Amino acid sequence: MVSSIKQRQKAVIDRLESTFLHNRIGHAYLFDGEKGTGKEESAIHFGKLLLCERPQNAVPCETCNTCKRVQARIHPNVTIIEPDGQDIKKEQMSSLIMKMTKKGYEPGRKIYIIARADRMNAAAANTLLKFLEEPEGDVTAILLTEAYHSILPTIQSRCQRIPFLPPNREEMMAKLVKTGITPSMAATVTMLTADSEKAKELAENDQFALLRKTVLKLMEAADRHVNEALLFIQSDWLPVMKEKEDMELGLDLLLYAYRDIVSLKAGLQAELTFPDHQQHLRTLSMKMTYNRLSENMESILQAKKKLYGNMNRTLLMEQLVLNLQEGLMLV
């Protein structure tokens, strides 16, 4: 586990171990990087190091009871906060701060990890900000984000930013192809995660293959006629996208399809997400203006936000299809 994350993010782990070795542990860090770059894994590694019973040369032993409990996410001094539905709410943050300011169940530093910190709502962010301004005791915050610029500047300024470098996508694709994954599937999964193991799992997953196929069929249906696209939502999309996680993944793939269209329209040499559908995507690129493409991508992003709210998923997709279909015009 340690060797794996150190190989993938050596600069990050070296920096964290150096702060421990020189006793310069900060009260707040902001881990910034793409999905799959190992942010949570690195946060857990740092948590083990800060609480380990017998660290050696700024490396956690991995064998003591404390290391094992931190790794299992059951140590009382380590708390992980994740979005409750669409966002991280004020109540979650207030509860966390109350826990952090109380006397610990066990000696040692208290650590809280906020996953997808960019999804804190305004009230939650302001509640956290007050705590960051006046930290109490040996407490370390680790905020994880894939969207650094969505974090309040006042929170950014109170955290040490730790950037996570993405792996080389072309190298990841080549490795996947060597294992028998098709080049087109390798291109798709490496857009969704920077973790090569997770990319391989996705590429070999039959449900994911069906999700991918369904997204591309929706693009084709919307190109032909809005009524056909609306019918497709009922007959094909919703039966496949039964879970919110499937729907979110489907919307991500749809967004990347439009990214491909923009790349083709602009004549960029970027690796496509769907190289096997390049001809159709190129045709679509000639039917839409850049402004309309931008509006369509924004519509997909808004749909993702509504997904974890209370909006009916059928209505959400029907509205999205109507918005996307407006963009299919000759220019």
What is the compact description of this entry?
With 331 residues, the protein is α/β, with parallel strands linked by helices.
Strand content: 5-15%
Strand order of the largest sheet: 2-3-4-1-5
Number of helices: 16
Q: Uncertain runs with pLDDT below 50, 5 residues or more?
A: none
Let me know the number of strands: 5
Q: SSE order in H/E notation?
A: HHEHHEHEHEHEHHHHHHHHH
Question: What integer is the average pLDDT?
Answer: 91
Q: Considering DSSP H and I runs of 4 or more, what fraction of the residues is helical?
A: 55-70%
Summing up helix and strand content along with how strands pair, one would put the structural category as alpha/beta
N/C terminus separation: 53 Å
Largest sheet: 5 strands, parallel
